[in-house]
Structure formats: structure tokens, C-alpha cells
Specification:
- Strands 1-2-3-5-4 form a five-stranded parallel beta sheet, with helices on both faces.
- By secondary structure, the chain is an alpha/beta fold.
- It has ten helices and five strands, in the order ααβααβαβααβαβαα.
- Helix content is 34%, strand content 9%.
- The chain has one domain: 3-Layer(aba) Sandwich (Rossmann fold), CATH 3.40.50.970.
- Bound molecules: thiamine diphosphate (TPP) and magnesium ion.
- Thiamine diphosphate binds next to helix 2.
Length: 318
């Protein structure tokens, strides 16, 4: 399977899993799908027959709310049955809404409370150095997650100990749960911040598989840890979900939301990939009900307006 095919299947599973469970975070899953596909398919050394193989690379999804993407990748790579994905986010399932390592082969760390993955990853990378092991540690973070102070504490530690076996990948979709990052807590200048912490910084298009592969290649032979700032679009692949804060928490409901989402995916289906749920697509999609707003222009549900504190045009306090 190619990374493009895997990414398509991750997106297709993500739609189905959130649809069946009424679970959140489809925008976050679609955003990270290409990063996950390239990493699990072409970059990291993982072994579905021996998930605890000591030589394996360690992958942590620190933005654990997009766990469906990792579960889908692991199922596709043979770590467990694809059929089990249908239980995601449901009572009694081991595939909990936020990614869990409890009984799930291939998951290194349960996350969901944001801000912890990079610290644990730095610890794993330090442990590898002490044990003279050659595995690498990959940690996928959200950009909004970088509001957490622990991310920067981990960045300090990784630099201090020259953890060049640690790679952070930031899913830089410029959005968090309730608004754009810029309106919540600006990260800019983002690259410069990482550079100031002594990290090797690579920027890449987070939906361009070749660019991602090249970026991962460039993480080798450095003295310092590397961060790949992967520029992405939240909701990527489904036009009415792209860049729309609505789809952080909303799931594709039965009817036109689900039908249109699947149809949109079909517009970019790579050759040779099959759809396990609707193999022939959706012939007669349900129509958008009158009054529904499918356009991607929803008002953020909450904004702490900086103008309450300072005038963004004049830069003066008000
Ligand atoms: C410590 C903590 N605070 C708040 C939340 C609630 N929360 C879930 S997802 C999310 C937004 C994360 O944004 P980002 O890291 O940019 O991920 P994206 O969904 O954009 O990929 C927040 C605040 C949480 N999970 N953990
Ligand atoms: Mg984000």
C-alpha cells in the first residue's frame, strides 16, 4: 500500500468511526492523516508481528484527540482487525476516543490531556541514548497544544541532552478547538521560537507526501532534536470541513453530512484503493436540508477578543 492510499483509508475510516460513534475531532483527524500515513508507512520502523520489538521506533500521538487516525493506520498495518475500528469511542471498546495504549498493540502512550507527549518522548529518547539503542522517537503535536508550557519544558530538556533521536512533528493547521490559534494564543514567530530553543527546524507542506518524506530524511545526522512544522489544513479533504471550527467537535451526521463527506473523499480517491464501507460510493446523496449551512464559515464558539484588552490596529491599550 502506498502512503497516499493509506492516507485515503485513514480519512475514510475517520469519517466512518466518528459517524458511527457520534465522536468528535474529525477535523483534527483529517488534518493529521497525511503525516500519520507517511510516518507509519514509509518512515518509522514498526513491526505488527512483534509490536513490542525493542528495536522499533516509538511514535507518540500527543494530540490524542485525533486517535482515530492512529488506530486506522495501525489496523491497516496489521496490528489488529480493521473490523474493530467500528467500535471506536463506544462503551466497552479498547479503542477509546482519545488514543489509548491500554491493550492496543502499536500505541506507545495514552494521551488526550494535551502537552505531555513531547516530555514522555524526550524521556524515551534519553533512555535510548543511555541504553545505546538506535531507535528514534517521533511525537506528533498539535499547534494549539504548543500553548502548553510543558511542550517548551520538553524542548529545553531535549536540547540540553542533545536528543537528536527525537523528532517532533507539529500539525500546524492554525486552529485549535474553539478558534484560530492566532485569536487564542499566538505562536508566532513559530519557527523562530523552536530555533531559539536550539532545535533543528524544518518546514514542510503537511499534505505533500514527498515533502514530508524529504523532511523526515533531513532529521537524520543532526546534533540536535528536530521539529518538522507541517503546514496543514484542519478538515483537509472535505471542502465544507476545511478551516471550519465547527468540525473540531461536530461529527458527520446521518444524511447529507455523511453522504457529502464520503462523496468529497471520492473526488480524490487514489487508484487501487478500496472503500470498506461504501464500496461504490453513495449513489444518491441525501440533500442538504433547507436552512442548513454547509459552507465553511462558522463563527468560532468562543473568542477572547484581544480588542477587549488592546486595540489590534493601533496597538494601544483600551
Ligand atoms: C490539557 C488540555 N486542555 C484542553 C484540552 C481540550 N482540547 C481538546 S482538543 C483541543 C484543541 C487542540 O488544538 P490543536 O493542538 O491545535 O489540535 P488540532 O485539533 O487543531 O489538530 C483542546 C483545547 C485537552 N484535551 N487537554
Ligand atoms: Mg491545531
Amino acid at each position: 500500500m502506498t502512503s497516499k492510499q493509506l492516507a485515503w483509508r485513514i480519512r475514510r475510516h475517520g469519517i466512518e468511526m466518528t459517524h458511527l460513534s457520534g465522536g468528535s475531532h474529525i477535523g483534527s483527524i483529517l488534518s493529521v492523516a497525511d503525516i500519520v500515513a507517511v510516518l507509519y508507512n514509509d518512515v518509522a520502523y514498526i513491526d505488527s508481528k512483534n509490536p513490542k520489538n525493542d528495536a522499533r521506533d516509538r511514535i507518540i500521538l500527543s494530540k490524542g484527540h485525533a486517535g482515530a487516525a492512529v488506530y486506522a493506520a495501525l489496523a491497516e498495518k496489521g496490528f489488529f482487525d480493521i473490523e474493530e475500528l467500528k467500535t471506536h469511542y463506544q462503551n466497552g471498546s479498547r479503542l477509546s476516543g482519545h488514543v489509548s495504549h491500554k491493550g492496543v498493540p502499536g500505541v506507545e502512550l495514552s494521551t488526550g490531556s494535551l502537552g505531555h507527549g513531547l516530555s514522555v518522548g524526550a524521556g524515551m529518547a534519553a533512555s535510548a541514548k543511555m541504553d545505546r539503542k538506535t531507535y528514534k522517537v517521533y511525537v506528533i503535536c498539535g499547534d494549539g497544544e504548543c500553548d502548553e508550557g510543558t511542550v517548551w519544558e520538553a524542548a529545553l530538556v531535549a536540547h540540553q541532552y542533545h536528543l537528536n533521536n527525537l523528532v517532533a512533528i507539529i500539525d500546524h493547521n492554525k486552529m485549535q478547538s474553539l478558534d484560530f490559534c492566532e485569536n487564542t494564543l499566538s505562536l508566532n514567530p513559530f519557527s523562530d521560537k523552536w530555533k531559539a530553543f536550539g532545535w533543528n527546524v524544518i518546514e514542510a507542506d503537511g499534505h505533500d507526501h514527498d515533502a514530508l518524506r524529504q523532511a523526515f530524511e533531513k532529521t537524520k545526522n543532526n546534533d540536535m532534536p528536530t521539529v518538522i512544522i507541517a503546514n496543514t489544513i484542519k478538515g483537509k479533504g472535505i471542502s465544507f470541513m476545511e478551516n471550519d471550527i465547527l468540525w473540531h467537535y461536530r461529527f458527520p451526521h446521518e444524511g447529507w453530512e455523511y453522504d457529502c463527506a464520503v462523496n468529497e473523499l471520492y473526488k480524490n480517491k487514489p487508484d487501487g484503493v478500496t472503500d470498506p464501507y461504501t464500496p461504490d460510493g453513495i449513489a444518491n446523496p441525501a440533500l442538504e436540508p433547507a436552512g442548513a449551512n454547509i459552507t465553511n464559515n462558522h463563527t468560532p464558539s468562543f473568542t477572547l477578543n484581544p480588542n477587549w484588552i488592546w486595540n489590534s490596529s493601533t496597538k494601544e491599550k483600551v
